[in-house]
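Write out structure tokens for Alpha-D-ribose 1-methylphosphonate 5-triphosphate diphosphatase.
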Amino acid sequence: MPYLRNCMEPLSTHIKRMPTMRDTHMTQELILANATLVLPKETVTGSIVVREGRIVDMASGRAVPAGAKNCDGDYVAPGLIELHTDNLERHMRPRPKVDWPHQAAIVAHDAELASVGITTVFDALRVGSILSDPRRNYGKYARSIANEILGMRESGALRISHQLHLRAETCSETLVEELAEFGTEDRVGIVSLMDHTPGQRQFMDIAKFEAYVCGKYAMDASGFGEYVDFLYGLHDKFGKRHEEATVAAAKRFGAVLASHDDTTVSQVTTSAGYGIRLAEFPTTVEAAQANHTHGIANILGGPNLVRGGSHSGNVAAMDLAKQGLLDIISSDYVPSSLLLGAVMLGNEWGDLAKGLHSVTTAPAKYANLHDRGRLEVGLRADLIRFRVTEGIPALRAAWHKGLRSA
């Protein structure tokens, strides 16, 4: 364990002189002391020192030097890393036909994520639109929103790190053109290959797809069959071309490629052939097992964990966790489910460090973020402080690059 020095010695031997109040003021250090540090494979009582946005020292023991924040045994963990969230869309369109000012929506989204301990987010933006069917509001938006996110990121207007995640919808009309609007300068981090054609993947059950579409888009049942036929036609016309274009675009961007809603072993085999590393929300045990066979990490939803099952009737995340098939949690559409889900996993596994691993170290590893996701000297000081009461985590504070974000 390289995180605390001289790891083979008893923990009591790691206590060292911490800076005095005068030292702290001169160097503007942040010292979190008497904390339960959540390391990748264990939790230990100790202190952590931050300077200029980096972790510069760690030590074990309960000592609280002058100038340090006494954490009173609270957990201190790496900041949470969110790989797939639709939360921004909720702020942009809080009600049907309501288009909220985009920069205000981005700021609100950013603040909400910071408030639940997320310090890095991959904002999921759909690419691939349906423009010829007015019954569904499925227009283009990704490029314009990406410009606003990137501009606000560069101006320092945001509290946490924002990366781009392009959700490539193959059952659409404009995917190739929309992917072409992005380049390497956008630093797209993840591209997910998505196919929402009804009757497979997330919506194997057509009845559930009907309830979802008619409820969300106020479509009456009489037009549903015609709409399904329209989508089948899109898939037959564009599906293969769009799939190939998405894989090529991910390579062009240098982005991690993800699959979405894999259901069968055959689908996973195809994913593996494309070089996919992440599987978002596999819908069956068989698909999750096949992903592990191919070295693909399974991402399951925090809401699925918290609710005890999938809202679409697919496999329960906790069932996969009990079989050792859950690697990463995504908050999906409820940001607060990320920390709560990690603590629930820790309780289920009897290992809080392992639970937190699914929202810190694991997503950092698979998204190629090598400078964060662990408490380790030299890494970015993206940190959270929380305590757990009756199984429910309560965030006390968060820091992004050493600066207070919540």
